[in-house]
Amino acid sequence: MAWLLLGLAIVAEVVGTLSLKASDGFSKLWPSVLVVAGYATAFALLGLALRSLQVGVSYAIWSGLGTVGAAVGGLLLFGEKLPVLVVAGIGVVVAGVVMITLGEAAH
Questions:
Q1: CB count, 10 Å around CB of 63?
Q2: Tell me, what DSSP letter sits at residue 50?
Q3: Which tens digit of pLDDT belongs to each residue from 12-32?
């Protein structure tokens, strides 16, 4: 259950981050509301997940996958560019998250 909460926290964080871009500096109401709701939900779910999961592992996964989600969301929703070096960096982040997760499972 804690892993599900962490996954939902990541989704909420990505929604909040992408809404931050869409809010245009908090000048648009509904994207601004989504920013607050997304981040509040993300932190609440992360807090619940931390009841069972280690903070270092959880935060590494949360921030890493949130970064990947924001980059992919920026590409899909806003037409932002992902140069080869950025894609390679995303691959490194994903590899790191996999290593952290496997290390946690082996512990």
A1: 14
A2: T
A3: 999 999 999 999 999 999 999
Burial label, 36 (beta-carbon count in 10 A; 0-12, 13-18, 19+):
middle
Q: What is the pLDDT of residues 84-105, one digit of tens each?
A: 999 999 999 999 988 988 887 7
Structure tokens at 43: 């932190």
Question: 53-57: long-range contacts at Cβ-Cβ below 8 A with a sequence spacing of 24 or more?
Answer: 53/2, 53/3, 53/6, 53/104, 54/104, 57/100, 57/101, 57/103, 57/104
Q: How far apart are CA 8 and CA 106, in angstroms?
A: 23
3-state helix, strand, coil in the chain (%, to 5): 85, 0, 15
